[in-house]
Amino acid sequence: MPRTVGDFGEFGLIDRLARILPTSAAIVEPIGDDCAVVRVGDRLLLASSDMFVEDVHFRRDRTPADAIGWKAAVAALSDIAAMGGAPVFCLISIACPGDLRVSFIEEIYRGLSSAMSRFGAVVAGGDTARSLDRLVIDVAIIGQVLGSRCLRRKGAKVGDLLAVTGFPGSAAAGLHALEHGAADRDAGRALAEIHQRPRPRLREAQWLCNRTAVHAMIDVTDGLAQDAGHIADSSGLGVDIDPASIPVDEALAAYCAEHGLDPRHLALTGGEDYELCFAIDPNDQNQMAEAFRHEFHTEVSIVGRFTDAWQGFRIAGQVSDIRGYDHFRTTPDA
Ligand code: ADP
Ligand code: MG
What we know:
The protein is an alpha+beta fold. The chain is built from 10 helices and 12 strands.
């Protein structure tokens, strides 16, 4: 009989905890999506929180303090993007040991605040407490649903195509560059910048949300395989990812060639890309892609298809042992 958090894994634990909580008429979308959707008066609000723990999410000696703050803000902003909404404000909580330099926390706040204001949100408050040795930062963000709907993980239909923005795997390659002393030159430099200064795809997501042919969406934070799998699971479907269709740009290709890495494996398993992954009606695929590229000068690619023949994700039709990130079960191999 499994008893520890490690036995259950991150998602098993969340499922167990969710069972303890009562339902409420105000909660339109409960636990399980990128944000909760909450009705307040006649408005729909989006709410999400993301925690960053020293030595789990970042290393104090390896990441510039302002980048730690920027990334914490982007993780929260990206969850609002994943629903197609607009961020409004956030609350920041920190726990830190008493001997931490104040200037270090101030730098984190400069990064946090610049990302929030760059993407239209403000820091409205938070909480501060002592921790014994590690720095912990939590960002709770509130956003709003724009127009008549938001996009959820559920809603993909049989025959929908799986699309992804940008070049997933780039952030994982950037982390590799930072960890292997290759972040100061050539492609490694550009990829490390993507890892340390990701951008939430808010405008792109809002644009996709306005398109009725887009049926479901998630942000890519735990690898394309796991995140596409979340859309499939929530929709009661399977998704078949075609690895050969995963786009690889020049920087990612060059870096991976030099370091003996497989860029498509990085895309499937790596984290922190903050790209968007969504299910789209095949009839709108071409018009959507053309209009999207024109509007955002950003790549969007079809990388798979939804099916009712099985549940979860497969890679090129095969059951895969690829696992995305689970806090208690795996360490990312990228
Ligand atoms: P994301 O990676 O998009 O931030 P998570 O995987 O962290 O999403 O969370 C998945 C879902 O589980 C979300 O709806 C989140 O609000 C919920 N969740 C995560 N941890 C907890 C918790 N400790 N208590 C209640 N809900 C939680
Ligand atoms: Mg998310």
